[in-house]
Every structure is written in structure tokens, then in C-alpha cells.
Amino acid sequence: MITYIKGRLIEKTPTKIIVESNGIGYEINISLNTFEKIPDDENIKIFTYLQRKEDSDILFGFSSQSERSIFQQLISISGIGPSTARTILSSISPTEMQEAVWAEDVDRIKSIKGIGLKTAQRLIIELKDKVELFDKKDIDLSGENLDIKKEALLALSVLGFNKSKSEKIVSKVYFENKDIELQELIKRSLNKL
Known about the structure:
Distance between the termini: 47 Å
Shape: elongated
Number of strands: 5
Helix content: 40-55%
């Protein structure tokens, strides 16, 4: 499998890029999320996933290993193919995807074109246990501090609150105010539990 390609960016559009490496031009399908993060520099490194079909090989590219991991998790779900997974990652960033799964936000996932209620529910159920396996180090957190949520959840579990209910409330409170301090996050979450 081709795990990444390092080379010269020849062409860049919102749906695909062409990268030349060692005299070979690779056409790579990308999400809007990746399109926004790929610099217009001449030399780039893009993480890839190769889909083999009977009649063709299709290369998908990602700006980070985490986005590729989410893509692979998505296509492992029944009813979600590479095109749908790419649409999902064009509509929602990897961080927002993690947030939606942690918060079990069916409406957020259902708002993505081509995703219905049942698919959104199945996606949450199947990714719930796997989402923490995603590598957060190379996701662009845009100033978000995911550790503050984990600390708040740990504090609430020590206090004896239900983990599932606490996750939903902490995510909701955090989503409303991402600059919140840990103590305030715990306090507001306690008021809603």
C-alpha cells in the first residue's frame, strides 16, 4: 500500500491534486478539509489510502494521518464507501467529527449531505469506542483544548456521575464556550447533570 507521497504539487483543486514524485504524476482525490490545509508550496507530503477495484485504482489523500484514520474508520462502516467518507470529511473537520461522535450528536452528523438518520446513528455506535484511538497530535485543533474535556470527565466520574451522560453534557458546555476554564466547565456541567 502507498502510505504517503512526497513530491511536487502540480495541480490543486477542491476535489483533487496532482503530485509529481520521481517522474510519476499521481492524481489524488482529497476532501475540502485537506484542500484548505495543503499549502501552495511546491513540495508537499500527502498521506494516502489506495482503493483497489476490479476496473481501477483510486488514490485518496489526506493532510494528516488522523484524517486518514478517520476515513478508514468511516469506510469500515456498512453503507459508507470512500466517496461518502470523503463527503463527510469535506463537510466536517476531523476534530468536529470526534466531537460529534463523543457527544452522540446525531443531528450534526445527519446534517451532512447523503447521511440519513440510520446511517448517522450507526456511525456513532460503531465509532464511539474507536474515536479515542484517533491520533490527536496532528489534528489542527484551532485553539481547542481537548485535554480540558478529559480532565472534566475524569473529575465527574470521580464524583460518581454516569460517564455517557457526563460526556454529552461536558461536550455541549464546551462546544458553547471553547475558551472556558476547567473549573467553570466542571461547575456548569454539574449544574446540568
